[in-house]
Amino acid sequence: MEAAEARELIEEAIEETEKVDRAERAVEKRFRDRVSVLVGLFALLLAVIHVGAAENARDGVLKTIEASDTYNYMQAKIIREAVLKAAAEQPGLTPDEKSDMLRQAAHLREPDKAGHGITQLQPKADQLRDEGELASRKGEMYELAETALQVAIVLLSIALVARSWAIVAGAVSLASVGALLALATFARLLA
After folding, report:
1. What percentage of the chain carries pLDDT values higher than 70?
2. What pLDDT does residue 82 have?
3. Is the pLDDT assigned to residue 191 strictly greater than 70?
4. Spatial distance between the Cα atoms of 15 and 60, rounded to a whole number of angstroms
5. Alpha-carbon gap, residue 126 to 104, rounded angstroms
6. Which position has the higher pLDDT, 1 or 4?
7. How far apart are CA 74 and CA 108, in angstroms?
8. Which of 31, 97, 118, 140 suits a disulfide with 109, CB 3.0-4.6 Å?
9. Could you tell me which of 164, 185, 183, 169 has the C-alpha nearest to residue 45?
10. pLDDT (average), residues 66-85
11. Which value, in Å, is the radius of gyration of the alpha carbons in the chain?
12. How many angstroms from the chain centroid is the CA of residue 79?
């Protein structure tokens, strides 16, 4: 083999290697670009789901506080009613004073336009408590969906280093579960 032929073969081999390298870099770039887009989409979805989680957590706390306030107000009225009834039993009261105290005690229990009668406060407090518990459960479901998306984003980071479509598939599956969980919670199918 002559030197010129050897040189030609070496140049062809180098050129072929460069083509393969360029093709491999192009495949790797497409892989990285696609995974990067998925990371961005998952991060966006995570932010949207986080808004729902935060809103439900806040609503749960506010409804629970409002229910507690309503129960406390009802208890104060019950105590006032008991005090009036006990005071009406004291000796030395005129019949009008006794009648007035018993009338005031009865008035505390009766429904009124403002919804502050003892008989009105109990169902209102129960409803607020139930709404608070529902909002808290929904918040927990959103947090579970958030966690699924966070893990999916971490898996995509691992997939970038490992160059693994299998890990990408796992991340997409997990993110899909998180998104479906959030959607079902939003649609009131869960919680």
Report:
1. 98
2. 95
3. no
4. 67
5. 25
6. 4
7. 10
8. 118
9. 183
10. 95
11. 35
12. 39
Collapse the DSSP code of 187 into the 3-class scheme (helix H, G, I; strand E, B; otherwise coil) and give the result. coil
Contact 175, 45 (CB under 8 A): yes
Helix spans in the chain (H): 3-88, 95-109, 118-162, 165-186
Look over the chain and give the mean of its residue pLDDT values, rounded to a whole number.
93
Name the residue among 110, 39, 40, 46 with its Cα closest to residue 81.
110
- Report percent pLDDT > 90 for the chain: 81
Output DSSP code: residue 91. Answer: T
For the whole model, what pTM was predicted?
A: 0.75
Q: Nearest Cα to 179, choosing from 156, 155, 133, 147?
A: 147
Residue in 125, 36, 117 with CA at minimum distance from that of residue 81: 117
- 8 A C-beta contact, residue 73 and residue 180: no
Amino acid found at 62:
L
Residue with tokens 């209102």: 124
pLDDT of 116 higher than 70: yes
